[in-house]
Amino acid sequence: MKFGLFYEHQLPKPYDDEQWDPDQEHQLLKNALDQIELADQLGFDYVFEVEHHFLEEYSHSSAPEIFLAAASQRTKNIRLGHGIVVMPPRYNHPARVAERIATLDLVSDGRVEFGTGESASEMEMGGFGVRREEKKSMWEEATRECVKMMSETPYGGVEGAFVGMPSRNVIPKPLQKPHPPLWVASSRRETTMVAARLGMGSLGFAFETPEELEERVEQYYQLVREECYPMGKAVNPALAVLSVLSCFDSDEEAIDKGLEAAQFFAYSLGYYYNPFTGGSHEPGKMNIYKRFMDTPPEQRWGPLGEGFRGFGGFQGAAIAEEPKDEVTRALWRAAQRGGCIGTPEFIKDTLRKYEASHLDLMIFVAQCGARKHEDVMESIHRTGTKVIPEFKERHEQHQRWRAQQLNGVEYPVNSSI
Amino acid sequence: MPPKLERIKDDSLRRSLTAAQESLRAGHFGDVVHRASDAYAEMLRRDPDLMKGPLGMRRILFYPRLGARLIQEQDGSPAVIYDRETFTFSEAITYFEFAVDSLVREGL
Fold first, then answer.
1. What is the phi-psi region of residue A99: left when phi exceeds 0, alpha when psi lies from -120 to 50, beta otherwise?
2. How confident is the model at residue A16 (pLDDT cuts 50, 70, 90)?
3. Which whole-number Å values give the CA distances from A301 to A52, A149, A190, A296, B80, in the listed order?
4. Interface of A with B (CB under 8 A)
5. What is the pLDDT of residues A51-87, one digit of tens each?
6. Where is B80: in which H helix or E strand?
7. Residue B74: is it exposed, middle or buried by C-beta count within 10 angstroms (0-12/13-18/19+)?
8. Does residue A10 contact residue A59 with C-beta atoms inside 8 Å?
9. How close, in Å, is residue A132 to chain B by CA atoms?
10. Mean pLDDT of all residues in A302-331
C-alpha cells in the first residue's frame, strides 16, 4: 500500500468575521508547500490537489496546476496528482488541460498523476453553466479527447457533442508515455466501476471502510480484466481512498488537535453538496465556520441528518456497539468512518485492515478545518516516521498480488503503484 | 464471491439486468439505461416502504440524474422520466451499477 496527502486548502473564516484576515490565503498556500516538502522527505508517495471553484472555506484550491508546479520545484520524488481536473469544457478546455498536464509533467521530471472528474456542487456547476445531466458525458468526451491530444502527433481533431476542434499538434507532450497515469474521482460506488471499465484509477472520495472496500476491490479488478475498454492508450489499475489523519502520541491529543477539523471537513462538504442547500450559499457573506461552531457537537458531522451515509461517508455508520468512554467512542467513530485519528499504533491497526483489503493507495486529509500548521506538520512527521515504514516494507507483496490480478490484461499498464 | 449480478435472487430482475449487461457490451447504451431504471423502479414498486423516511428520500434523490431521473408520482409510485434517449458509455455504466448494487443491497 502506498500513501499520499490530499489538499482541499480549507480555510475557515474567523468566527466573528465575514472575511478572512488579509494574509490568510497567502499563508495557507505557503504552509501547504512546507507540508508537502516535508512529506516528500519522509517518503510519502503522492500528493493530490483538488480543483474547486467558489466553495468558500471548504476549498481554496481553484488553480491546482499552479500549486502543483510550485510543489514540483520543492520536492524530488513525491508524485504530483490532480485530484482532480474538472473536465467539462466549460471549466477547462481539454487542449488547455493537455498543455498544462504535459508542462507540469516536464517540469516535474515525469511525476504527474492525471486525475479527472466532473464536479458535483451546484455552486460550481451554476457558476460555469454546466448542466448536471450533461456533466458525465462532458467528462467522458473531454477526457478522451484530452488524452488523445497528449499522445497523438498531430491530434486529429473532433466534432463532438461538447468539444469541437480541428486537427492541431497540441504541445508540449508529457514526459511519461503515452501519457501520465489516468484517474477518475469516484465519490459514488458506481463511478469506481466506470473507472474499472475505462481502465482508470479510482480516486475514492467516499471514505470507505475496509469492509466496504474489500468487495469493491474484487469487483474493480475483475472488471479491469474482463470488461475494460480503455479511456487512454494505457490503463492505470489502482484504487485509492481518503481518510482523515491526525497522528499524535496520545489518543487524547490526536482527537483534541484533529477531530473538530475533521468534523468541519464533513460539515462544509455536506453544506455545499446538500441537494437542498448547496446552491443557496450567499457568496462572500456566509460564515460556514461560525455556523458549524454554533451547531451542537453531536450534529456537526453534517447538515443532512441521521440516516444519510453519503457526502463523505462520515454519516451514521451503524453505531450498535458504541463504547461509553468518550475518548474511546470518538476513536471508534473515527475508525468506523475510515478515519485515522489517534496514535501511530491505532492508525497502523486501521491501515492494516485496508492493506488486507488490497487497497493500492491511502490518501490522508491532514490539512483541514482550523488545524494549526504546526500540528499538521507534526502529524505528517509522525506518520512518515512511525506509520508508513511498516507498510513500505510489505509493498512488494502487494505488487505481486497486483501482478496476479492483472494477469491477462491485454492493454499496456502505466501505473505508479 | 460470485459476481454481483449473479447475487440478484429475483429471476425476472436478474434476467433484465443480464440483458442490460449484454447491451452495455454491445454499445446499446440507451437500452442499458432503460433496463436498469425499470429494474430500480420495480424494486421500489414492490416495496413502497423503501421510499419512506430519510433513507427513502435518499433512494429517490440519489438516483443518477444523467438524462434519466426518478420521481415519485402523486400516488407515491415511482416513475422514470427520460430527458433524452442517447447516453454515453459512462452514463450507462452508472445506471447499470447503481441498479445492480441497489437490488443486491435490498436482498432482491
1. alpha
2. very high
3. 21, 42, 24, 10, 32
4. 132-137, 139-141, 188-191, 193-194, 197-198, 215, 218-219, 222, 227, 229, 275, 305-308, 310
5. 999 999 999 999 999 999 999 999 999 999 999 999 9
6. strand B78-82
7. exposed
8. yes
9. 7
10. 46
Residue with cell 443518477: B64
Q: Angle at CA A116, nearest 5°, toward A115 and A122?
A: 130
Q: Which of A1-15, A103-117, A215-229, A266-280 has the lowest mean pLDDT?
A: A266-280
C-alpha grid cell, residue A224:
479491469
Do the chains contact at B98 and A132, CB–CB below 8 Å? Answer: no
- Tell me the shortest Cα–Cα distance from A140 to chain B, in angstroms: 7
Hey, is B31 helix, strand or coil? helix
Which residue of chain A comes nearest to B5, CA vs CA?
A219
Q: Which DSSP symbol is given to A311?
A: T
Q: Do B97 and A307 touch (CB under 8 A)?
A: no
Grid cell of A170 as nine digits: 497540441
Which residues lie below 8 Å from residue A319, measured CB to CB, with a gap of 6+?
Answer: A333, A336
Q: What CA–CA distance (Å, rounded) separates A211 from A202?
A: 17
Q: Which residues contact A276 (CB under 8 A, 6 or more apart)?
A: none
Determine the distance from the C-alpha atom of residue A258 to the mean position of all C-alpha atoms in its chain, rounded to a whole number. Answer: 19
